[in-house]
Amino acid sequence: MKNTSKIFIAILAAALYGISAPASKVLLKYLNPLFLASLLYIGAGFGMWVYHRLSKIKTKKKVEASLSKSEMPYIIAMIVLDIFAPILLLLGLTNTTAGTASLLNNFEIVATSLIALVFFKEAIDKRQWIAMVLIIVASIILAVNVGTVISFSFSAIYIILACVCWGIENNCTRKLSLKDPVQIVIIKGFGSGIGALVVCAVWGEFSTNILYIVSALVLGFVSYGLSILCYVFAQRSLGAVRTSIYYSIAPFIGVILSWLILSESISIKFLIALSVMMLATYFMVTESHSHKHIHQSITHNHKHCHDDEHHDHTHDENVEENHAHEHTHEVVEHSHSHYPDEHHRHEH
């Protein structure tokens, strides 16, 4: 898959997720935030399970690597974080505008990038640092209320905490990104959805309105299920930081929909934050990374083909299409433009 295709999938993931804030704002009028959070992820899990079953009918050939027991810690962390992140987001969204919530979602990029840098040594260049500083500035503008007394918006803090949870979760998913993305979304959807449902049973309340329940499930399939599927596909090639960069257009889609559909008012503070976020996005998408690097020997199992510079192993018979099996990469040194994917997580 060429870089343009990888980037398009990341942007598609962003577009699908961008729908969630304004649509969730409407549903919050009728559904408890804890209940809505559970429905969104259950909708994602069920929708992707149906997609998986239909795909198996269409083709019997397996081209994706399955999750293994060694990855269980990352799976558990992914599920737990995805229980609390949407709950925090929806609690914040209850008392703020969908546009503000959408913009604050960009803080997820900062959290993802810093965690990837500290724990996984993923490279961050000068333009990315500038972008992250701008995102932090914009988030502070949205989170601080300036009047006779300076105070913080608890709604904004809830959303920022949700972004921190998703930032950690993105890096857990990064460790799984070479495996079957449909399997990942099914596990994430049902695991996190049922977990949030338990939380709702203790502290929230349920609704019996079938129309809004079905609407929430459909929204979950589109904005969480399909979006996460595209995100994982992109992340396996672009890395956690770069995928988050292209994913950063999601808030702007949410802002536009909030203005068009919800007729939300626009404050001077919001316009300043929006301008800063747009400048940050410019710095992120214009980043480029190329240098001479060494690939150490590695053995792993994932979907691949032999039309790139990294999969030159041989088969007993000619194989041209995508396939998955355990294979070994020999040591090689070369120079080309690259992202911090599974084959380019070298030191800088």
Kindly describe this structure.
- This protein has 348 residues and is mostly helical.
- It has two domains: 3-291, no CATH class; 292-337, no CATH class.
- It has twelve helices and six strands.
- Strands 1-2 form a two-stranded antiparallel ribbon. It has a two-stranded antiparallel sheet with strand order 3-6. It has a two-stranded antiparallel sheet with strand order 4-5.
- Strand 1 and strand 2 (151-152) form a beta hairpin.
- The two termini are 26 Å apart.
- The model has no long low-confidence stretch (mean pLDDT 84).
Overall pLDDT score = 84
Structural class: mainly alpha
**First CA to last CA: what distance?**
26 Å
In total, how many domains does the architecture comprise? Answer: 2
The radius of gyration over CA amounts to 21 Å
| Amount of beta strand | 5-15%
The general outline is globular
H/E element order: HHHHHHHEEHHHHHEEEE
Seen as an oligomer or otherwise, the chain set is single chain
Low-confidence stretches: none
The major sheet is characterized as: 2 strands, antiparallel
> Helical residue percent?
55-70%
Question: What is the number of helical segments per DSSP (H or I, 4+ residues)?
Answer: 12
How are the strands of the largest sheet arranged? 1-2
Task: List how many beta strands DSSP finds.
Answer: 6
